[in-house]
Amino acid sequence: MPESNPWLVQDELIEQPSWGGRYIIDLKGLSDSDDWAGKKVGQSYELASTSKLIDPKTQAATLFSDLIKQDPEGWLGSAVVAKYGLSISLLIKLTQAKGNSFQVHLPEGKKLGHWLPKPEAWFYLAPGLFTFGLKAGTSFDAYSNVLRTIDDHMHRLSDEVTAGKRTVEDARQQASNRIASLNPLSYVNTVHAQTDDIVDLTAGGIHHSWEEDNVNYPEGNLVYEVQIDVQDEFCSMRGFDKGKILDDGKLRATHVDDYLATIEQDSYHNDLSQHVRQPGLLSETDGGKVESIFRTPYFNMDRITLGDGGSQGLSSAAAFHHLFVHAGSVKIGEIELVQGRSYIVPASAGDYQLTAAKAGAVLLNTFLPA
């Protein structure tokens, strides 16, 4: 059985030269590391099916999935095992991203080809820019025609580049001109995210994308993502890839018809107020406060803010806790949890106490609704 000690999640950083940055590197205290000198990181996996946990006593790294097999209830909790089995399928990412494609995920209960649902939610760590849902009063037929026209044009340009009839640079300029004239952004809600904005996409069928504004948001979108772990080729339908043409003239796959067939057109799915909100206060004491970030059928998350030397009691008895230290540091017993790192507190820990260092601390606690 695992002891009550928290286990460190081994870092898994994803280099991304085109749209990443230094935020994740700096947050994790790796700014002076030779391994990351001059590099940009777009994401770090704070928990995934590939994650390894580091034993606080021996410093040995072991796949979390292997540890679960050795003692399912000790690690996950009996209620989690009963509800989810041994495969928790939880993916938690820290992301620094600029523009990405117009996307949609399949809703639960809907069938379409090989596509699978991927409930996900975002927590903005700084102001950013994204699109979400169809704009009120949008003509869906007009929007559909715009996306199909752009997609057809992009494939013609790609064919001309690969046939040697047009340079990549010229094709990119032609694509930019055509997209500007058709203006697909005019059909969707563009949102200037505020720090602490919560974007709940778990319902599925909701259009979404991250946008790029290097003047107002030079670092891009700094987002803590929690989602069900499904590979992109089975869940992310691209309706518009923003005119991107690879250096060899080829395009990333788009799925315009499936994207359009999946988007929900009703007011609930496209109403920002139903899905974008700020944290809700759960409790507050002299030592700190606990706020609700996500409450979904798939995963929950709280934010714990501790003042100078403040403490907070928690219990992982019902379900293991995934703690990400966003700022400062805390101790559980004699083990220090440091900024920018993630830790698993096993269910066998039961009741435990977080105690902040003098500068205080901020943590995100993700757990399964068991």
Number of beta-strand segments: 23
- Uncertain runs: none
What is the number of independent domains? 2
- In CATH, what is the class of the largest domain? Mainly Beta
> First CA to last CA: what distance?
20 Å
Count of helices?
9
The CATH topology annotation of the largest domain reads as Jelly Rolls
Strand-residue proportion? 35-45%
- Give the overall form: globular
Radius of gyration of CA atoms, rounded to a whole number:
22 Å
Could you walk me through the main structural features you see in this protein, from its secondary elements to its overall organization?
The protein has 370 residues and is α+β, with helices and mostly antiparallel strands. It folds into 2 domains: 7-135 and 185-236, Jelly Rolls (Sandwich); 280-367, Jelly Rolls. It has 9 helices and 23 strands. Strands 1, 4, 5, 16, 17, 18, 19, 20, 21, 22 and 23 form an 11-stranded antiparallel beta sheet that branches. Strands 2-3-6-13-8-11-15 form a 7-stranded antiparallel beta sheet. A hairpin with a 3-residue loop joins strand 16 and strand 17. Helix 5 packs antiparallel against helix 6. The model has no long low-confidence stretch (mean pLDDT 96).
Structure summary:
The protein is an alpha+beta fold. The chain has 9 helices and 23 strands.
What tags apply to this protein structure?
Jelly Rolls, 23 strands
